[in-house]
Write a structure and sequence with these properties.
heterodimer; A: alpha/beta; Hypothetical Protein Ychn, Chain: A; 5 strands; about 20% strand; B: alpha/beta; 5-stranded parallel sheet; 4 helices
Amino acid sequence: MKFGVLINEGPYQHQASDTAYKFIEAAIEEGHEIFRVFFYHDGVNNGTRLATPPQDDRHIPNRWTELAEKHEIDLVLCVAAAQRRGMVDEDEMKRNSKDANNIAGKFRISGLGQLIEAGIQADRMITFGD
Amino acid sequence: MLHTINKSPFEKDSLKTCLRYAEKGSSVLFIEDAVYACTKGTNFEKQITENQENISFYVLGPDLEARGLDNSNLTNNIEIIDYKGFVKLVAENEKTQNWL
């Protein structure tokens, strides 16, 4: 079965990002496919490559990247939410004349259409957030 | 239909709202801080037991454990499941409503 996942909460905020991660891990173990993970609102902060949590804590952005590399999961940050929060990839950096970018490797920035497409293409849609 | 609730009923009234909308035959899963809704002896025990004829209640075991709770603290007839059980519930139900 194909799952679409929407995450509306940032890392280290409450528990939504952790629950989503563990849900996705279990879904893959059970033989399901993750069509896409869409990060919206504060959820876009999951995609920073500049986070340095304490060594004995989980590294949430890296954990997403590793999971995506291993299972080829599409991780999408909402462009409008990302721009508001200073989450920038190379294209957005050039387009908005910024001096840096901060998106982790496996994440990409795109529009809400990607969420709608996930809702259409996936068999199940599930939301994690505040 | 599956309903998930993730906030404590002491903080938000999403349990109440959910129960108002949940139809006969649906399932309700408590995750994150919502697991406190399952504790015996609270006002929420009655809200759950009153609806058990029509609705199946589940709670995410790892989130219970993380809060020092176990079977002995739980309202009767709430099934403890793990993340694989969570995935199974989502797969079994055509739609999931996440009360945030």
